[in-house]
Hints:
Shape: globular
Strand order of the largest sheet: 4-3-2-1-6-5
Structural class: mainly beta
Helix content: under 10%
Amino acid sequence: MESEKVYECPLHGGGAAVRSLAGRLLAEVVGSRLVCGGDIPVGPLDVWLIDDREATVYVTTGSDGCLIVEESEPHHGYDMGDSGRVTVGAVGNETPFADHIGESVLAVREEHEPNTGRVALELSFPGGRVRCESWAGNLRLSSL
């Protein structure tokens, strides 16, 4: 029997066991956005997936290009002075997850790179799939 290779991020470790997401019902999505002056918010920079039992999974990117997936609660927004401020709150229809609120996660698939660790995560729902990936240091969410 062949053992499964583990590709952990050298800086952030392996994070949450993403296979445990299968079977969870997505109840809410919270995200953080960057606001500069009066501009339209940019983001989400990261998201928190909250299930029907209020368990929370945080998805963001690491400084080394990995995709961090861990269990943690949403943080508060913060001010970065002249660089703008980060706000945190419900993201509603702003992410591909909006179409899957109220659906259970059917399957989970990850992609890894040997020197970085996890770089992508796909969640399958009855109504489609959502891909989370680290792209040029930013979190990119897309419907499949």
